[in-house]
Amino acid sequence: MKGVLIVDDQVGDLLWLLDVIQSRGYKILLATNEAAARERLLAVKEGKEAYVAAIVDVMVAVKDLLDLMDLDDQFFEESRNTGIRLCQYAREELHILAKELPIACLSVRDDHEVKEAMRKLAIPLYNRVPQSPAESIRGFVDLHLPPLTPGT
Amino acid sequence: MLLVAAIQSSVRIEAWSRIEALQKLARRTFEAPEWNLETLAQALAELFRADAVTLLLEEHGVLRLSASTDHDLGRGYDEVTYRPGEGLTGTVFATGKPVRISNTKDAAEVERAIYKQRSGPSHPERDELGPFGGAFLGVPMLFGHKVVGVLRMSRRGSSTRFTSEDERVLQFFADFLGAALAHSWTLLFNRSVFESVTDAIIVSSREVGGQGDAVPRVIIANPGALALLGRTQTEMEGIDAREVYAPGEYEIIRQSLLRTLLSTKRQGEHGPIESRWKRADGTFVPVIISFRFLANQLVVPNTLYTIALARDTSESEQLAGQHKRLLELLDAIEVAYFQDDQNGITREPTDAESRITGYTKEELEGLNRQKLYPEPTQRNRLLERARKNQGPLVQVVQQMVRKDGTRMWVEGDLRILRDFEGREIGVEGFYRNVTNRLRLQSFLNEDTERVLGDDELFDRLKRNAELHLDYMSSLSHQLQTPLGALIETLRNFETGILSQQRLMDRLPYVIGQALVCSQLVRNLSYMDKILQDEQFHRERVSLTKLAIETKLDFLHLLHEKRIDIQVDNESLDRMLRVQGHREMLRQVVVNLVDNAIKYSIPGSTIYIRGRNWPEGPAFEISNQGLPISDKDREKIFERGFRTRQAYGLVPHGTGLGLWLVRKILEAHDASIRCQQVIEGGQKRVVFRIVFPTTARRTS
């Protein structure tokens, strides 16, 4: 079964999207923080894992809570841009091409910093609360995740 | 007869010609800038054909050598002094009468002349042949009845004796000399005054008692006066003294002095009087003048000398002007200047202080400043601090009381005033009302022990505004996310992606998302109430009920994160009976539970219970999760503050939840602290809310 990588720490708010994707016959793999998502992307690069597409929240948690507990006080990361960093990691460091792994970003942010970063990476940015169908992640799903017929 | 008459006539002519010569000698002597008494003695010796002439002057009751034709007299160890009655010279000194004898070596003649015996002159003049012991003539120099000196002359034994005409002529000269010498001391004294450049002295004279009003004329002005007026001595001498003063000032001073003189008949100095002198360039200089008067009644009509001793006060006037301008400036920026005496009585009330305190300026003058403080000892404590500080107290923030009894916060400087000997004579300082400023600082969660500078305050306000914008943006995002999820879930249902059965499964999440939105909106509403200091209705609130209801609201999240909440009903009910605003306290519980869920380890348990602490009954909520460092534990209640770990775990937080919790609790007179404890081998973060014990009693 083909899988879709979802990177988000508030999965409760994305249950509807999981319903959409699952209704098309895809399975979901969830990474709830940046560190976990990096491992998945590296696995893709190394050919150990494969996903039909990835959907990344721009402001996902940096690490798992248990990892954060052991961090000393010096630790500080720009947590507002974790999703951007992940996309840059995939495209600019691991050189995972769009045809290998289509990525979409999801955010409530629509500021210049996010838009510009996504434009440079040629990764579509969708609003979590779309005002029109064109802004909806459903368009990305329709394009990259066609319904699978049983057995595919 | 004719011969006698001729002799007498020639004697008279000789006497007159000698007097004329003496007059010339006197003029020459006294008109010289420096008197030369040696030359005088020499001239007298020639006029009287004396072999020796000596001048002796009185000082402290003893006659001392002044000048002599014998330049060796008094040289070495031979100090020439005569006490009253000592020898011929001392006898002239003691009696004030002349002594004239033909031979001083003749003991019988000496005894006849002065009724005393002696072995020889004690300080005789000498020449190469030895001491003089011939004819002697000594006359007193008188100033009134006082002997101010003795003038004596000698001739050798072989010379002719001194005549009674010699005696009369010499006495005439000695009297004149005595008066002049006595006067010279006064002049010497005056000269030292005139030479003073620091003070300005002008002496003027005016005839009095004559016909009409005589013009007062300047006789002399010292260098100080000349410098002050920008004139030369020549320009000053003889000018109308009234022209020295600004127009009209002379007459005012004259009238004032006349009144003083008539009322007190006081001798010596009069004044000081403030006036203005006119400079050569037409400008005026402020002066403060003391006056002395001298009347010469020996001449007709009498002459009145006026000695005006003036001091330039333009500098002090400038300082006073600066002081006044400074006060006006302080007034304009609402800063009150004050000065009081050592008893705390206000000496210099100002408009600004009047506006700030509500007292009129008249009420302030004489007001004991202790009344301006809430506590009677506060002023003394401040002064004690200033003494210990050994300098001014700067930017002191304290409370003061207005006339109407209301209190205000002021910030100001204060210093103890001391006289030249270091004694305390009062206190001065300035202050401004900073009540609203401190209120603003408190609103911005800033320290209120000191008043922030404008730059600091601007930074804080800017930061606050940015926080607010961040908050609005963050709030908007947090509202949008669950709302968007709700809409999309319903759209899935509408398009058939979500079956009815799946929708039923999803409903707890859907409701949970709606509740999250509702919680966020309520936070906004209560934040507004708290910030506006709005009064609210209080009722008895069961925290147990609030805790259980909150747990039910968060079930979907608890399920998602596999977290359990255990509410200890019994301890909460037993220990906590709180009076307050139910919905605001609900928000406190909701925010704390929301936090605990966000930062707890999946699979852990959150405990909510009541505890009794010495400081009061407490509501405690503890969780096992993200630790909070010691230094962050106080800060987490500040507006907009989030720990770095919290940012890492939940990037989209507002940093306002705990701040609002603290604000709501403060409005309930309760307090909150965060601690880290170890329970059952686990590190747990505890939030402890201590309610006032009075709340319990009230209930």
Sum this structure up briefly.
Chain A is α/β, with parallel strands linked by helices and 152 residues long. Chain A has helices spanning 15-23, 34-45, 65-69, 82-93, 112-121, 137-144; strands spanning 3-7, 27-31, 53-57, 103-107, 125-127. Chain A has a single domain (3-144), classed as Rossmann fold.
Provide the CATH architecture of chain A: 3-Layer(aba) Sandwich
**Main beta-sheet annotation of chain A:** 5 strands, parallel
- Total count of domains of chain A: 1
Strand portion of chain A:
15-25%
- Rounded to the nearest angstrom, the radius of gyration of chain B is 53 Å
Which overall shape of chain B is indicated by the principal axes computed on the Cα atoms? rod-shaped
Largest interface (CB < 8 Å): A-B, 35 and 39 residues
Order of strands, main sheet of chain A, comes to 2-1-3-4-5
Describe the structure in your own words.
Chain A contains 6 helices and 5 strands; from the N terminus they run E-H-E-H-E-H-H-E-H-E-H. By secondary structure, chain A is of the alpha/beta class. Chain A has a single domain (3-144), classed as Rossmann fold. Chain A has a 5-stranded parallel β-sheet with strand order 2-1-3-4-5, with helices on both faces. In chain A, helix 1 (15-23) links the parallel strand 1 and strand 2. Chain B folds into 4 domains: 21-191, GAF domain (Beta-Lactamase); 196-312, PAS domain (Beta-Lactamase, 2-Layer Sandwich); 344-433, PAS domain (Beta-Lactamase); 474-698, 2-Layer Sandwich (Heat Shock Protein 90). Chain B contains 23 helices and 24 strands. In chain B, the strands form 6 sheets. In chain B, strands 3-2-1-8-7-4 form a 6-stranded antiparallel β-sheet. Chain B has a 5-stranded antiparallel β-sheet with strand order 10-9-13-12-11, with helices on both faces. In chain B, strand 23 (671-679) and strand 24 (682-690) form a beta hairpin. In chain B, helix 15 packs across helix 22 and helix 19 packs antiparallel against helix 22 (657-667). Chain B is rod-shaped. Residues 695-699 of chain B have low confidence and may be disordered. The chains are: A alpha/beta (152), B alpha+beta (699). The interface between A and B is large, with 35 and 39 residues.
